[in-house]
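Discussion board: Methods & Data

I've been asked by a reviewer to show the raw model output for two of the constructs in my manuscript, not just the figures. I'm not sure how much to include, so I'm pasting the format here to get opinions. Each protein appears as its amino acid sequence followed by a line of discrete structure tokens. Is this the kind of thing reviewers expect to see in a supplement, or should I convert it first? Here is construct A:
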Amino acid sequence: MEDPKKNQQITIEINEETGQGIYSNLAIISHSPSEFVIDFVRVMPGVPKASVKSRIILTPEHAKRLLAALKENVTRFEAQFGPIKKIEETGFNPMVFGGPGGQA
């Protein structure tokens, strides 16, 4: 007899606001024995204070599945677009933005 749970499909919906996404250029990850917490932060040039824009709380099992999914997607991305440079290779520092300063 077939397991009915194997054939279940989930319909996933996303509202317009969530679909717009939230930009983040820094992630802070912490964990406890029962969960992983990922805080997504946006650091802005010349601003010494940054704020958490989104917090995701995961079980350890789901964190491991997320890690595997990210690895698979990075591999696909690099196969299509070429290697992603590490921060050390680009010289990027999230606290120092390049380009000319703003003028009024």
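Construct B, same format:
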Amino acid sequence: MNRRERVPLYKAETKVIFEGMEPGTYIHYFKDAVQVDNETHEIHGKGAVNNRLSEMVMVTLGSMGIPTHFIRRLNMREQVVRALDLLKVKVVVRNTAAGTFVSRFGLEEGMRLPRPIVEFLWQQEGHPFQYVSEEHITAFGWAAPAEIEEMTGLALRINDFLTGLFFAIGVQLVDCKLQFGRCYSDFHDESRLVLADEITPDGCRLLDIKSQQKFDRGSYASFSTEGAFDYQEIGRRFGFSGPLGVVPQKVDGE
């Protein structure tokens, strides 16, 4: 299909999903956009950094035996991924008290948790994410008990890997948000859980270990050109970043 003829299957603030050129695949386009306080801003080059970072993480996790939807990187801002039956819940793994976790439990911001804590999120279209329990998930048929157990185990393994990966470049992983989906066999009678979506600063809270500067999309209360530094610096430390700037970029279908 000609690039200009593609119709988006799904559009969000930071990504666009197209039908893939091969059966059972999608194309994930990483937009040069960041959402802060319900406002979307453009950072030229941010999508390329996130594409490269997510590729690196997915490939390494795959080599560790953790199945992912990643197939290959197509170009600077696109990658080919498997089409999955996404679960209706997302998984958050917390290493440090931050965000709503602080107010919900009366903790001090930045307090190291005794061990990684796994939480589940569900979102009704047009509404904010809600924290849900395993009882909610099984009662409403969003996932089976065995899938919840598998998700939890995979999420903790992924968190452990990411903690070490970011620590190696002087960055602390505060928490991460993960999504899983069912990948069916050719006969559709069996499925396995597969890591989906992306692993980037858009879904992780990150802190510079020395300066405690935040390296994620929530790192500034009011957006400015300094926001480009977050992605540029993370990319630079991994060795694949170019100059970033606040320049709008257009995507097919927008």
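Answer (T.O., handling editor elsewhere):
This is acceptable in a supplement if you add a one-line summary per construct. For B, something like: The two ends are 18 Å apart (CA to CA).
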